[in-house]
Amino acid sequence: MSVPVAFNDIGKSAKDLLSKDYPVGGVKLEVKTTAPNGVTFKVNGQRDNKSGAIVGDLETKYANKANGIAFTENWTTANQINGKIELENNLAKGLKLELLASVLPASNEKGAKINATYKKPNVHTVATLDVFKTHFSVNSVVGQEGFLLGGDVSYNVLDGKISRYSAAAGYTTGEYAVAVHATNNLTNFAASYYHKVTGDLEASGKASWDSKNASNAVALEVGAKLKLDSSAFVKGKIANSGVLGVAYTQALRPGVKVNLGAAIDTTRLGENAHKIGLSFTLEN
C-alpha cells in the first residue's frame, strides 16, 4: 500500500503541465551547487521586463539524511531572512516536523510557522500553526487504489471560528489523472485532467468556475507537452480568454538548461499586450 499525495498535490500533473516552464514577463537565473560535505547553495535572480526591478535570494541547505535532519537559510534582496529546521522520522516513523521562521529587520516584522506532516499507507496529513497570526490549518488525504479524497480546514484561534475550508477528489493511474477541487469555502470549483498519450506526448485541460462571479462564466484552458528528444521539449497552451502560451526548454549540456516562453494575447495582436521571458538554470 502506498502513501497518497498531499492535499495540495491532488491534480498536480495537470497543474504542472499548464503552469510550469513558462518563464514569461522576465529574465531568471538560477544557480545550484553542492559542496563535497553535502551543503547545497542556490542563488535565484529575476528581472521584471515591465518595471525593470531585480529581485533575488541566496539559499543554503544542509541535510543529514541518515539522521533525518535538515537546516535551510534564505536571504532575499528585500533583506528578509528566512530559516527552516526539518526533522523527519525522529519522533515517530512517518512524522516530519518543520519549524519555519522569518524576520524583516527594516520593519522588525517577524513570522513563525510549525508544520507537522504524517504519512502512512493510504493517509497523508499536514497540520500548520501560524504562531503570530494564530491560524491553525489541517488537511488530509485518504487514498485507495488510485482514488483520492481530501479536505482542508483553517481555523482562527483568536476569533474562534473556521476561516477557510476546501475539498478535493481525484483518480490517478500511470497514464492519466483526473481531479475536482472545491476551494474558497466551496465557492470556486475546478476540474482538471492529465493524459500521457504516448511516451513523448502529454496533454492536459482545466475548467474552473467561480459561483460568486456575476458573469457566471467558465474559464477553460488546454495544453500539451511534446518531448523532442532526451534533451528538449516544447509546450503550448490556450485559454478561452484568448491568451496563447508557448515554451521551449533545452538542456545545453549536463547541468545547463535554458527555458524560453511567451504569452500572446490573440485578441490584441496589434497591441503591446504580449509577454516574453527566459530562464537559465545552472547546476552541478
TrEMBL record:
GO CC annotation = mitochondrial outer membrane; pore complex
Q: Keywords assigned by UniProt?
A: Ion transport, Membrane, Mitochondrion, Mitochondrion outer membrane, Porin, Transmembrane, Transmembrane beta strand, Transport
One Pfam family for this entry, by name?
Answer: Porin_3
GO: which molecular function terms?
Answer: porin activity; voltage-gated monoatomic anion channel activity
**Subcellular localization, as worded in the UniProt entry:** Mitochondrion outer membrane
**Broad class of where this protein is predominantly found:** mitochondrion
InterPro entries for the chain? Porin_dom_sf, Porin_Euk, Porin_Euk/Tom40
Q: Which family does it belong to?
A: Belongs to the eukaryotic mitochondrial porin family.
Its recorded name reads Voltage-dependent ion-selective channel
The species this protein was found in: Hesseltinella vesiculosa
